[in-house]
Amino acid sequence: MKNFKGLLLLVVMAAVVMFTAACGSNNGNNTANNGGDNAEGGDEASVEGSVVIDGSGTVYPFMAQMAENYMTENENVSVEVSRAGTSAGFKKFLVEEGGTDFNDASRQIKDEEKAQAEELGIDPMEFQVALDGLTFVINPENDWATEMTQEEVVNIFLAEGGVTKWSDINPEWPDEEIKPMGPNENHGTNEFMYETIMEEKDFVDSINLQQEYSTLVDLVSKDKNAIAFFGYGYYENNKDKLGAVAVDFGNGPVEPSLETIGLDDAPYAPFTRPVFTYLNVNLAKEKAQVLDYAKYIMNNAQDVAAETGFAPLSDETIEENLSKLEEIK
Known about the structure:
This protein is α/β, with parallel strands linked by helices. It contains 11 helices and 12 strands. Helix 6 links the parallel strand 6 and strand 7. The protein is elongated, with a radius of gyration of 28 Å.
């Protein structure tokens, strides 16, 4: 009898253990199903794969920092950021199959690029990511041209400007030839300078146009008669090698800075422009990691802008961008 009671007790205990295990298994399945729902909604579930970005050299520091931050938080996603230049980047973006997911741009997409996108069936969605101030940099030994009017600094780069020597601007300045420099036609910064600042008038014949911004930094840092233009971020990161011209737009000289760069009534507004990234919506619909990264950009744009030498966008613009992304299903 004792043996029978002992056997009965063992059977009961085994049944309890099996019931408990079954409950635990059901709870686990419920959790997995919830995770699947999150994955479908794209909010909390992990994503994996690759994101490919090319384009503007001006936007590159912003996007490279953004990518580094994102990959730290999302180890299963690889974000590749290159800097062929805005125009060269659009050629890589506007490809029927195998184009880039994003194209960074320091200008807006052109009508002919929009037409090409439509022909290829690509839906490019534009997002402002920050504000940049076109900055004119000089050699640290240049202690005479630290302040110029808007007209004076632009005339250095104009074929019709009539300026070849520093003394042409001010007789008290050195009677030495100016060495104007800037990014080449692959870059949106070149186009912004030509189309907006110079009003589509020709560059001076002596201008030295380069593909790499790092080359421009090096050239200016070694030549006291050099002057170049590019985005504020590259100056911010090379203040130990370069000086910047304070520009007088009519109310006294204004140094480019995160405090003065801005649109509308900002002191450096005449030389301020928004910078962009363009998302291939077709690919964002196919690849969860691309859409996830786009949302990450917008949620972190203001912080990363300030970290990389850009003036941040307004809260209103950020909200508008996020609303556009929420419409992508």
